Amino acid sequence: MKIIIINGPNLNLLGKREPEVYGNETFETYLKKLQIQFPNVTLEYFQSNIEGEIISKIQEVGFTYDGIVLNAGAYTHTSIGIGDAVKAITTPVIEVHISNTFSRESFRHQSYISANAKGVIIGFGLQSYDLAIKSFI
User: Fold this and answer.
1) Which residue in 20, 30, 24, 16 sits closest to 71, CA to CA?
2) Domain count for the chain
3) Which of 13, 24, 61, 77 could link 65 by a cystine bridge, Cβ 3.0 to 4.6 Å?
């Protein structure tokens, strides 16, 4: 099984950015834990702060991988293009968010991804990724 985790803007700052919301662990450290936890899954990782790069990656893997775990960050709430890319592919997508977006600013309550995702996991910290991977297994 081949799954890719795609993270959007500012998620490269995990471990430094707002630890009261996002925790103290870097994503790279957490990814190593996931790879140990799921030894029979090929886990790849991609992060970009650039909307077009995220769309290109979704299109690149969206017909050949077994799953995409997508945390588009703030683009979740603004990017029709990322939503359209998810709709255009055949690989199932699980939308994840580390924080509970519904307990935050009202603009974070809208997602352009959810309608075309297999599912949405919100508010379980980094464990949201773990739960998304389990949903594909």
Assistant:
1) 30
2) 1
3) 61
The reported pTM is 0.93
More confident residue, 10 or 47: 47
- What letter does residue 48 receive in the DSSP assignment? -
Q: Which residue is catalytic, options 30, 65, 97, 129?
A: 97
Structural domain for 82, as ranges: 2-136
Identify whether 97 is a catalytic site residue: yes
The set of long-range contacts for 11-17, using a CB threshold of 8 Å and a minimum separation of 24, is 11/47, 11/71, 11/73, 12/47, 12/49, 14/98, 14/126
The rounded Cα 118 to chain-centroid distance in angstroms is 13
Judge whether 104 is annotated as a binding position.
no
CATH number of the domain where residue 64 is located? 3.40.50.9100
